Amino acid sequence: MAYVVTDNCIKCKYMDCVEVCPVDCFYVGENMLVIHPDECIDCGVCVPECPAEAIFPDTDPIAEKRWLDLNRKMAEQWPNIMAKGETPVDGDRWNGVANKLAEHYSEKPGEV
Amino acid sequence: MLLCLCLGVYYLTPFLRWDRGPGEPSQAVLLDFEHGRLFAFFIEIWPQEFYFLTGLLILASALLILMNAAYGRIWCGFFCPQTVWTDLFLLVERWIEGDRRERLTKHEAPLTLCRVAEIAAKHAAWMIISLATGGSFIFYFMDAPTLLRELAHSEVSLLVWTWILVFAGTTYAMAGFAREQVCIFMCPWPRLQGAIWDPQALSVNYRDYRGEMRTSVKKAAEIRARGEQAGDCIDCNKCVAVCPIGIDIREGPNFACINCGLCVDACDSVMAKINRPRGLIDYETWLNIERGRAGAPMEKARLLRPKTVGLSTFCLLLAGGMSLVFAMRSTGSLSVEHDRNPRFVILSDGAIRNAYNVKIVNHGGNPRAFSLDVEGIDGARLEILGAPADGKISVLPDNSQTVRVTLTSTSDKNAHLRFLAKDESDRSYVAAENFVAH
């Protein structure tokens, strides 16, 4: 089991999770973060930290298989992030918007 | 494992049988209020022997302190009924409602029919366990199979139902709701813990000299690459999450810690994942923690110390003494009292007769018939006044019987006598008296 980042992170990208992760397993894309499922130790400390409530255990029905696959795939391409960076100015506006994966997701790596 | 063992012992003990012969209860462990007896296998304790119970309680306290000196509050974490039943209730909760995270999510989610059914199922399961627990408790006081049959036919008295419900209610409340609050606030142990805490005991401790400063894995790697110190604790909070008492062991030894070791396992599993040696939290003596802080070499925890040896000796002596008293106690007694006046009577044929009051006590649970004999005088005739044709004196259970006995002899010499009362199973009791001839 591992935790995965899901839809609501896209374009919100608060990055509070990064500060608390005991194993620094977050990787950063242009407008979202992902967790490396092989590095995650299932402690769950990041879950309550996320203002967008976008982190779920991969056993949760909300975190379908595609999210686990996406987290693993992008974690291998994007840079590792160990300290909170600058958050998007309009992040709050996107919190709770539906179906962001199809409309706003970017595969470009983020900056650390 | 231990949970099943402890529960098994509790639920099955009343059904163990022990043959004590006719008329005696055949339940191995039974607190018989009706007849005022406490049965435990071959042991049978009478109300007048309450000191045995006191002795057992002292023995139990000494054993707990001994355990504490060796392994800390290990009783609390593994064997205490409060822990065992709470664990059982938690197990049920996990089966029905899922793990803690799922429960929290469900707790915040709006009530659905499915959720209501889940809650109802959980409480129903808890209540069934509680009823079984309360029922089993009553089995220790009455014949278990009989009571079970009567329960199945709902033929039991209101009194029995009341007690079952009282114990079911307390189980439900303590294991379902009060849980660790019992261990912290209701149990006297944590109050004692400050006094009997032993720095040489193998109790759950956090190796702070190894864990601090806490920092995440990759940051620690960077710090170490710079040649600086970083701790092994990555602050994942697993130890806190699994703690049934809700303490943070990393803050130091805690009087409320029940030494269950769940944090040890949780931390070890994390250390395995991040390739660090296990045992950041471990069963370790406080002395070794202090040695670690000072950079001194570790020493193995010593089980054989004056304190543990002394306590063990005390326990053995107490147990031995109690066994000795128990083995030497008698199941009956005989007392013989010579008539004061007249001291002897000369019969018309010249023979001399003495009269005695003989009292036989039967502590057993069955009626017994005693034959009476006398030694120390030859050719004398013993006669029990009002005895049946077989010359046996029968004594009811838990009772005594006094008879008048005459001893007639042709000898005119004084003699020292030994009266001997013997029952059917050859258990005999002796009393000394005199024959007076002049």
What does this 3D model show about the protein?
- The complex is a heterodimer of chains A (112) and B (438).
- Chain A has 112 residues and is α+β, with helices and mostly antiparallel strands.
- Chain A has one domain: Alpha-Beta Plaits (2-Layer Sandwich).
- Helices cover 26% and strands 11% of the residues of chain A.
- Chain A is built from 5 helices and 4 strands.
- In chain A, a hairpin with a 4-residue loop joins strand 2 and strand 3.
- The radius of gyration of chain A is 12 Å and the shape is globular.
- Chain B has 438 residues and is α+β, with helices and mostly antiparallel strands.
- Chain B has 3 domains: 163 residues, no CATH class; 92 residues, no CATH class; 104 residues, Immunoglobulins (Immunoglobulin-like), CATH 2.60.40.10.
- In chain B, the strands form 4 sheets. In chain B, strands 6, 7, 8, 10 and 12 form a 5-stranded antiparallel β-sheet that branches.
- Classes of the chains: A alpha+beta (112), B alpha+beta (438).
- Chains A and B meet through loops of A and helix 12 of B.
Low-confidence stretches of chain B: none
The percent range for helix content of chain A is: 25-40%
Task: Return the average pLDDT of chain B rounded to an integer.
Answer: 87
State the helicity of chain B in percent bands: 40-55%
CATH architecture of chain A: 2-Layer Sandwich
What number of structural domains do the residues of chain B give?
Answer: 3
Overall average residue pLDDT of chain A: 87
Q: Separation of termini of chain A?
A: 27 Å
Biggest sheet statistics of chain B: 5 strands, antiparallel
Low-confidence stretches of chain A: none
What does the overall shape of chain A look like? globular
Q: Choose one word for the global shape of chain B.
A: elongated
Biggest sheet of chain A, in brief?
2 strands, antiparallel
- The secondary-structure element order of chain B is HEEEHHHHHHHHHEHHHHEHHEEEEEEEEE
Q: Which structural class matches the secondary elements of chain A? A: alpha+beta
